[in-house]
Amino acid sequence: MKTIGANYTGDGRCIFTVWAPEKKSMTLLLLDPSEREILMDRGKWGYFSVELTDIKPGTRYYFKPDGGKPYPDPASHFQPEGIHGPSAVVDQGAHTWQDQSWRGLSFQDLILYELHVGTFTPEGTFEAIIPRLDDLAATGINALELMPIAQFPGVRNWGYDGVYLYSVQDSYGGPAGLKKLVDACHARGMAVFLDVVYNHLGPEGNYFDQFGPYFTEKYCTPWGNAINFDEEWADGVRDYISNNPLHWFEHYHIDGLRFDAIHEVFDMGAVSIWELIHTTVKVLERRLGRSLHLVAESDLNSPKVIKTPEAGGLGFDAQWLDDFHHALYVLLDKAGRDRYADFGRMEQLAKALTDGFVMSGEYTTFRKRKFGASSAGIPGDRFVAFNLNHDQVGNRVSGERLCHLIDFERQKLAAAVLLLSPYVPMLFMGEEYADESPFFYFVDHSDADLIHAVKEGRKQEFAAFSSDTEPQDPFEIETFTKSRIQWEKRTEGKHRIILEWHRKLIELRRTEAVLKNVAKNDIRVTVLGQAGLVVHRQSVGGYDYLIGLYNFSDEEVSYELPGWVLGWTKLLDSKEPQWMENGDDSSTLLPAQAKPGQVVTLPPCSVTVYAGQVQLPVDAPV
Amino acid sequence: MKTIGANYTGDGRCIFTVWAPEKKSMTLLLLDPSEREILMDRGKWGYFSVELTDIKPGTRYYFKPDGGKPYPDPASHFQPEGIHGPSAVVDQGAHTWQDQSWRGLSFQDLILYELHVGTFTPEGTFEAIIPRLDDLAATGINALELMPIAQFPGVRNWGYDGVYLYSVQDSYGGPAGLKKLVDACHARGMAVFLDVVYNHLGPEGNYFDQFGPYFTEKYCTPWGNAINFDEEWADGVRDYISNNPLHWFEHYHIDGLRFDAIHEVFDMGAVSIWELIHTTVKVLERRLGRSLHLVAESDLNSPKVIKTPEAGGLGFDAQWLDDFHHALYVLLDKAGRDRYADFGRMEQLAKALTDGFVMSGEYTTFRKRKFGASSAGIPGDRFVAFNLNHDQVGNRVSGERLCHLIDFERQKLAAAVLLLSPYVPMLFMGEEYADESPFFYFVDHSDADLIHAVKEGRKQEFAAFSSDTEPQDPFEIETFTKSRIQWEKRTEGKHRIILEWHRKLIELRRTEAVLKNVAKNDIRVTVLGQAGLVVHRQSVGGYDYLIGLYNFSDEEVSYELPGWVLGWTKLLDSKEPQWMENGDDSSTLLPAQAKPGQVVTLPPCSVTVYAGQVQLPVDAPV
Known about the structure:
Protein name (chains A, B): Malto-oligosyltrehalose trehalohydrolase
Helix content of chain A: 10-25%
Number of domains of chain A: 3
Family (chains A, B): Belongs to the glycosyl hydrolase 13 family.
Mean pLDDT of chain A: 94
Radius of gyration of chain A: 26 Å
Number of helices of chain A: 15
Low-confidence stretches of chain A: none
Oligomer: homodimer
CATH architecture of the largest domain in chain A: Alpha-Beta Barrel
Distance between the termini of chain A: 59 Å
Largest interface: A-B, 36 and 36 residues
CATH class of the largest domain in chain A: Alpha Beta
InterPro entries (chains A, B): GH (IPR017853), GH13_cat_dom (IPR006047), Glyco_hydro_13_N (IPR004193), Ig-like_fold (IPR013783), Ig_E-set (IPR014756), Trehalose_TreZ (IPR012768), Trehalose_TreZ_E-set_sf (IPR044901)
Catalytic activity (chains A, B): hydrolysis of (1->4)-alpha-D-glucosidic linkage in 4-alpha-D-[(1->4)-alpha-D-glucanosyl]n trehalose to yield trehalose and (1->4)-alpha-D-glucan
Strand order of the largest sheet of chain A: 9-10-11-14-15-16-19-20
Strand content of chain A: 15-25%
EC number (chains A, B): 3.2.1.141
């Protein structure tokens, strides 16, 4: 690992290193305490470096390639004056960590919670999150997933316009703030994931071309030039990217990374950037002695993504399972077919639950081609499932959350299918209490051309959905402030019920051994026409049996409970009074105990969970 | 498999099928016996088709997308009037095959022979090759590999500008000529390989855009737009390409395909076009009951290329091993470092022999990046090795072959290292007798802009090598005629000696069991400084031992023969009188028999092969 950036090692010692393989010289311009210039040494492989012994943490600096204009450090750890300003030296040893006993969590045990630092609290900082952690933990959430926090233009951005991949957004609280948050999470048994973007770099404040060939024109991404992973001089770029996970894991004690849109990373090399990352992280994981998780956002539906390099895969531990969202959502909201034209059949949700990818080679009208390959047989903890995420909300013209689109009963259904699924579930901030703030797309660029381009792009994107609604102006500050969640509502009325419902489901997931079969080779689904489905789980080598009965329809549905158990005990019933928004109708309640083979009537829009034990054969040892 | 093109099934019946997913209508325009137009039926998946019952083989036709201009059939089997002319119906059942008992050859047994149909004989046709087959077979060659034969512009082309991938070049003799050649080869126990190009289509006569989205701008190749394997509408393109191998195997009894430049084929889909081809071909192989070989030209140095899809690979049976060429050639011609700056050490040839890829992750100055991954442990029959091929000759400004670049003794050395290597060897036409014709780059375009572009491109390509020689004009007919080999020279003087030397080496390869260990886990190489090397082979589970002693230097080199054999018997000595161009010097001959541990003196530029049997332990059963 080549340590790039400003590496402060204590006692005023700091090594500055920057990669610029085609430059003849590199000048370090220090701004504090007064301006001075130092010519750096040209080392091997295109790296310039210089070690100084009189540097104070916080010192601001620029690099001047070939003695020209000053630019921020591509590997800057901190940009205290924003994306265009100088970089600052960070003493990564300054924080006194309290998490010595933290060993991370097993991926299968996670309840992920995606949040946007800027809108999760009124303050929009890392530190402001801390007071809410106990409430999140009480609900059962044990892993935060922060939307990208690398320095982006201005103060309002989802984070995907981040440029300095080693830096921590100044307006969020910078490096010190992030460390406080991580320490506070670990103290509560919560893991922290970061969303990192390696498919492109933000357009504004991107001076990387001044240093080296970070980009290639061989491939195109929707966001501009692709990053150069396999052309001339790619090694320095590969160092820059493949060391980035180590930076977060080592300096910030991060537990896992979510890699944005890996399908827009192009690398034909014999060792892909993902294999390189897998290999370096697995080495670090053994050294640190705690779990480090690598999760891909992939729009490929390719099982190779989550296979090891030895098995010909990319080496991710898990990937987001978009198909689960599409299959479930369109069953709950018929209007959803506008966006997800290829979904809408109950069998697709069944396939999502048993196999993973719904599109496993089928033709899709959305893509106008066949798509995907089968993921049958892949364990459940290799997939992250969700009913909501920043994209599903923010890429709607009015930023609608699921609770804006479907009624109360269906919200309960959606949560149950997700949280009792064989996949690692992820909630989007506020989802656990049906927060009703929209989540808009917002940016804070200062480049006029860019502002125009973003506005036009958004209009075109929404034009496809023939909506009359004018998209919210991404540059307006209200677009940002309106996107803040309303945390105070979580204890009120229907919000409180939804919150309790989530807590109950997570508790079931934690306590019922049957739901913990990661291999998920036990799962079977009975499709009840287009009305609903029954999910069967059986414990590994054991006698426990659990069924989840889901009625998505507005009609009652009869179902004969399986006969191969000794008897059924109801664990959950969405029609019980405590889960009802407007009073209750106990006449629709299913029996607390039921006989094998008993026919039950599932009320409209309901979920019921029964547990039983498999009947012993007559001559089995008792 | 969707049968595209004109599928003549006998008795005047012919089904015409063409893919044009975004066209509203398609008209078949028949030219014979008189012009008539037939509106085709729009079927599923964007295919138009019509079945007629009054078609004669040879009937010429065009398609008119949306009733507009007429264009040739993208899946034309024959373009009797060239690339811009009408397509013609071919009766693929017309040829009476004589090769019923042909079951193909095992890949490890092949001696490949790459030839360019246009310059292999004065006639430049398939049929003109046939009279030369017996001579080739007598030398030991048992597989022809034809440079691309799909219809290209004009009559002079290497073939990489081919457009109609299902057609057979008219000037070579069309479908009937190719079948005669294949049948004649099979009758002599020779296999036939075709070079196919799926990374781009030639620029001239390329009307594919009139039919469908065959190309994508998402990726760039050095030859223009990449073929659309993973974007909207890709399925029809994938059908077009993935059925092409079946066309050659079924209709033309072809035994193997060499896929041009697979590193310029971009496909992020869950099932890559190569996996699709692998799968369909393996099914066909079982059905036909004969060996079908898939060989890649790959500039990736990635072992994935030759792994099965089940193991995460692309599914090729073998790939070209360029590193072997580079490592050996630069040791024989110091000037070779101009072109292959990263080669020139004896250890690299040793690695090429034991592992395969020489560049297995090392930084290369040529690429300005680290390149490749290790192929150690991969069996020898997964690689094709060569000292010469169309590119190595034709991409030199004067079209020099190896025999123009190195002296007679070194030519013998080169042939021995190749033909006694653990890899499947390939010769380039005329190489077996050191043919001295150049092999130039030649084309025959009719498009003026294209002519200009090609000329400029060639100049720029050679500019990198700071040569004073003006490149041959690719459009001059003499450039083509000068590239014809001089077959008649093979029985004369030094040419006859080189020919016999090849015959002898191939015979050794065939008869010495030790050389047949495909797993090549037995191979060891002793590097003799930068002077030469000794290749050790030991038979699998047996007692046979063979060493090849190679002295590349102009000095004598001493070597102590291994002591763990009972005794050594010389099998080959390049200094024996029969192999010498200008008389002989028997004083340099190595002993016909040698003792274990005997020190021998290798003459300058020599190769000697000894065989022995491993000594039994004292108490071993005899």
